[in-house]
Design goal:
- It is a single chain.
- By secondary structure, the protein is α+β, with helices and mostly antiparallel strands.
- Helices cover about 35% and strands about 20% of the residues.
- The longest helix has 18 residues.
- The radius of gyration is 30 Å and the shape is elongated.
- The two termini are about 50 Å apart.
Length: about 350
């Protein structure tokens, strides 16, 4: 592409000074005649570039001229190279492109900033994947087809498996774009004119159709994503669960369930506190069961019944392992089996 070639010429001239036209032609894999045409185009655009004749001549920029990218501060340069350390570019098939782009930026940086920018990749690593993340659910081998529909502004046909569904559902959606959140890719799209969120690793089949996308007028990806994110966060508070928590497990509980707490716990006697959680469904109260007798769910009643049934089912499953005379009530979770750190 010519625009990329023009930028490459400017960066080469900026870092090298005087460069023979033949060398520029060889680096850019074009003819010397094409190089001179590009130089004329740069000059017409206001870039102070000129050719020097003679045996030791070549192409150069007016001394002191710098492209806008050289106005980057040291912190701005570091920020760009930190941006390149996550896995988003590789997932989109742009790993090579970001590397090439950063090499161009490095060439255009002021000399004092270059060593600092180079050290970023040696000192900072961004790993977006969460700990103990298991293998992804069956889905497309990559994001290629989703990305294609997004950039070509085409409707997208999906076979999509919802979290608890036994069989996939078929949809035709109008994509706005792709979002990477905490290492998970999402497709943001309209389904029948309503905003929806689709996890990329639950897409079993994706096909870009010939039909043009039908987005709502004046609505962009950032706006749709913000609305969907607020909706997901509100759903977390659909079921309010109150519980009595022993102080010996309070620190661990706060670390594991910080995002679900609806407020700071309040004292309830010398050894307990009362805490209130917000869950998207009553079944999520099961996440409190591993705390055993250190967390007693008080309300709502259906959450208490849910945990009672789960505890009874667990006891029945392991009751055969109890020896004669063993009493399940003798089990003390704080001394017999220490809870692993979060």
């Amino acid at each position: 592409m010519r625009a990329d070639r023009l930028l490459s010429i400017m960066l080469l001239l900026q870092t090298r000074g005087l460069v023979p036209a033949s060398e520029l032609a060889g680096r850019l894999e074009v003819s010397v005649r094409t190089v001179y045409r590009d130089v004329e185009a740069l000059s017409a655009a206001g870039v102070p570039v000129f050719a020097e004749r003679g045996r030791s001549g070549g192409i150069r920029l007016l001394p002191g001229y710098r492209t806008d990218v050289t106005g980057l501060t040291a912190d701005e340069a570091r920020a760009l190279f930190v941006l390149a350390t996550d896995g988003a570019h590789d997932a989109l098939g742009l790993g090579g492109a970001i590397g090439s782009a950063l090499r161009k930026v490095m060439a255009a940086l002021p000399a004092p900033h270059r060593p600092e920018a180079e050290r970023v990749s040696e000192r900072i690593l961004v790993d977006p994947a969460r700990w103990a993340r298991g293998p992804a659910a069956p889905g497309p081998a990559d994001l290629g087809e989703l990305q294609r529909a997004v950039f070509e502004d085409r409707r997208l046909a999906l076979d999509y498996r919802h979290g608890r569904a036994a069989e996939p559902s078929a949809y035709t959606v109008d994509p706005y774009g792709l979002v990477s959140k905490a290492g998970v890719w999402y497709l943001v799209a309209d389904l029948d004119g309503e905003p929806r969120l689709f996890r990329a690793d639950r897409v079993l089949r994706a096909e870009t159709t010939a039909a043009p996308v039908r987005r709502r007028d004046g609505v962009g990806l950032a706006e749709v994503w913000a609305g969907l994110r607020r909706r997901v966060e509100r759903q977390r508070d659909d079921v309010r669960v109150s519980a009595r928590v022993h102080r010996r497990r309070l620190d661990l509980l706060l670390r594991i369930h910080a995002s679900s707490l609806l407020g700071p716990p309040v004292p309830d006697g010398p050894s307990h506190v009362l805490a209130e959680f917000g869950f998207g469904a009553v079944e999520e109260a099961r996440t409190l069961l591993p705390f055993g007798t250190d967390v007693e769910v008080l309300t709502p009643p259906e959450a208490r019944r849910l945990l009672a049934r789960a505890a009874a089912d667990t006891l029945r499953m392991y009751s055969a392992a109890l020896g004669e005379g063993d009493d399940p009530s003798d089990y003390r979770p704080d001394t017999d089996i220490p809870h692993p750190p979060a």
